[in-house]
Amino acid sequence: MVISLALFTLYAAVLILIVSTLKILRDYERRLSHLSPSIVVEVQTTSWSVKVVSLGIQDIALTENMFRLIAEQAEAERYRRARAMYAERPPLHLVDTVDQRRLG
Questions:
Q1: Whole-structure pTM over 0.85, yes or no?
Q2: How is 41-78 classified by DSSP, letter by letter?
């Protein structure tokens, strides 16, 4: 169960990356409409040392389950960041002491 959940989360993260990359490519395509998308992809991926052989842009329809998964992943990330911020804050009893010293 844990392994399949981890794989499912990995697949969702990869899908999010692909969708966001396609959105970026579509923006480039609109801006550089006189160039073919394959040239735009080639320019973008040259620094990665990747040769793109074939390119196809399609509209991806996400299922309701995938939308829920993406929302859960975003919520988990917000929770992780909140926990990190909470851990970095000074203890409340020390803050009160510092404030009292400033006032006194």
A1: no
A2: HHHHHGGGT--------------HHHHHHHHHHHHHHH
